[in-house]
Amino acid sequence: MIAERAARRPLQHLVGEVEFFGLTLAVGPEALIPRPDTETLVEAALARFPKASPVPFRIADVGCGSGAVALALASRLPAACVFAIDNAPGALKVAAANIRRCNLGSRVRLARGDLLADFDPGTLDGVVANLPYIPDAEIDRLEPEVRDHEPREALAGGPDGLDPLRRLAPMAARAVRPGGHVLVEIGAGQQGAAAGILTDAGVGPAESIPDLRGIPRVLAASLPA
Hints:
Blueprint: H1 2-6, H2 11-15, E1 17-20, E2 23-26, H3 39-46, E3 57-62, H4 68-76, E4 80-86, H5 89-102, E5 108-112, E6 124-129, H6 144-147, H7 163-175, E7 176-185, H8 191-200, E8 207-210, E9 216-222
Parallel strand pairs: 3-4, 3-6, 4-5, 6-7
Antiparallel strand pairs: 1-2, 7-9, 8-9
Helix pairs in contact: 3-4
């Protein structure tokens, strides 16, 4: 293990698990390792969805990867049904293992899909998404732990890192009911352009929420009521 770590294999892959928002999750090279920055996305969502709702509500976690965000939300929101969506078979396999590990199969529904293409208009109360947002040209300059050991499709966001959000925004505007919420994780320096994408799609205006380093990390917006 020491030799593999010296060769820059991620520690989380060596031990096979990681802690995220109070949950211990299985990880592997098939899905992005959950990071503390993404806990900002969970905290922002928890501030907007009802913790003690008398009626069930529906949230989609788009690009669920290991299932970290979906499981964190389901563990704190008893009335939520969370759809965990990804298009990568390997990531879905890791997410399925984590759903079983957390015993949340009754409220986290795993599905392979292209973003929100399979949802009818107005059928969701909210969307959370940690989509790929690294500009393609920057990936080869990332640390070896990320560049060589994590799935490129979970990192690469096109020339400016925002191509996945450009596809998601109009889908979210269609699938989320009036007054529902859309929260997305973004990269450093993407706040203005990402907020513009949401606004152009009819979602917003967006509030910017910083991570623990003070970097704008999440945009939170609502559909007009």
